[in-house]
Design brief:
This protein has 364 residues and is mainly beta. Helices cover 7% and strands 38% of the residues.
Length: 364
């Protein structure tokens, strides 16, 4: 059993706020020892292999509903533990956003009153450099979702608007997204799909650390925002803002986080993943290049779904070094995707805070 940990107290002083190496017992007390059936059933499905990327998940009517980036001819694949390997279409072709071309990225869904609100991102037709956001709503979590109004694209930045993530706080719904090169947020109305009156996009965090920059990139990169309130063993809660960084095709892709305070609603966020990421390849038994983190809660326990590359061997087109015969040989410095035939897979973690208020995770 592994947990997210740093090597010594000296790392705490350096800003790497994670568990010490001998804190396995602390992780047990922080994360608990058992899970409800909705989680164990989902974990069993993931163990058999569930292909997907950029997940969103939430609990409603006794089931955990999961949505992922387009794959296998589905605009927005949706599943619960019961159909994890055979997802249904949540967004029919006729309800795709106006001007959307190609696949849909990072759909996010939450219950909003008697309906379900969805945001997603994709490419605007006629301009491959322009990525935008779209909205949809439905009466049931499995769909079918329908476009909001005329289905018009929402493009606050001239070029780059991706990876929406819905969070509900005591103050109401908040939408997080990558807008331009920054991770930003904006308040929503109670329907989860309309911007709150007088609201505007506000900066949460931007790219700044060396570990966020992939080989060949001219600058660091951050994406896939996710806000969640986690609890210490004594019940004290903090808002943490997680994000993915580095090159998504590589084993260096990883998850960092920022602390956003312990008030009822998230406050200003301060990066804590300064010297290295919080979750990276092999840490907490994570897959290669973990990212696209999404959170849900059952009772008093919090969970995270992440995607990553699993195969020990690489796609024949890759030339990464590997000791697993008969995997292809090559240089470990190459762009390593570790693709399996269907793409990235999904992984389930139990998450929480330790006694020091630092996030810990254990893969299920």
């Amino acid at each position: 059993m592994r947990n997210l940990c740093a090597a010594a107290a000296a790392l705490l002083a350096a800003g790497c706020l994670q568990l010490e190496a001998d804190a396995d017992t602390d992780a047990e007390s922080a994360l608990g020892l058992s899970d409800p059936s909705q989680v164990t059933d989902l974990a069993k499905a993931f163990d058999r292999g569930v292909v997907g990327a950029d997940p969103s998940a939430f609990l409603t009517d006794g089931a955990v509903h999961v949505y992922t980036t387009s794959r296998a001819g589905l605009n927005v694949p949706h599943f619960t533990a019961a159909n994890a390997r055979d997802p249904n279409e949540a967004l029919p072709d006729r309800e795709r956003g106006a001007g959307l071309t190609g696949g849909i990225w990072a759909p996010t869904v939450r219950r909003a009153g008697n309906q379900y609100a969805m945001w997603y991102s994709g490419e605007l037709a006629g301009d491959s450099t322009k990525k935008c956001l779209w909205r949809a709503h439905a009466d049931q979590p499995e769909g079918p979702f329908s476009q909001v109004g005329d289905g018009a694209a929402i493009c606050p930045d001239p070029n780059w608007n991706i990876d929406p993530y819905l969070t509900h706080t005591p103050a109401g719904f908040v939408l997080y997204a990558k807008v331009g090169g920054q991770l930003q947020r904006r308040a929503l109305q109670d329907d989860g799909v309309s911007f709150a009156s007088g609201s505007s996009w506000q900066l949460v965090v931007g790219p700044s650390q060396s570990w966020e920059q992939a080989v060949g990139m001219s600058r660091p990169l951050v994406e896939n925002p996710a806000m969640v309130q986690l609890s210490k063993p004594n019940g004290v809660k903090r808002w943490l803002f997680f994000y993915s960084a580095n090159g998504w095709r590589t084993r260096e892709y990883a998850v960092g986080y920022a602390d956003c305070g312990k008030d009822a609603n998230p406050g200003p966020c301060n990066k804590e993943s300064l010297q290295k990421p919080w979750l990276s390849t092999g840490v907490a038994n994570a897959p290669r290049g973990p990212g696209g983190e999404a959170f849900f809660t059952i009772g008093n326990q919090d969970y995270m779904i992440s995607h990553g590359w699993e195969n020990a061997c690489n796609d024949p087109a890759d030339t990464c070094a590997s000791s697993n015969d008969p995997c292809p040989n090559g240089s470990a410095a190459n762009d390593c995707r570790f693709e399996n035939p269907g793409g990235r897979r999904l992984y389930l973690f139990r998450v929480g805070l330790n006694d020091n208020g630092n996030p810990v995770a254990r893969r299920l």
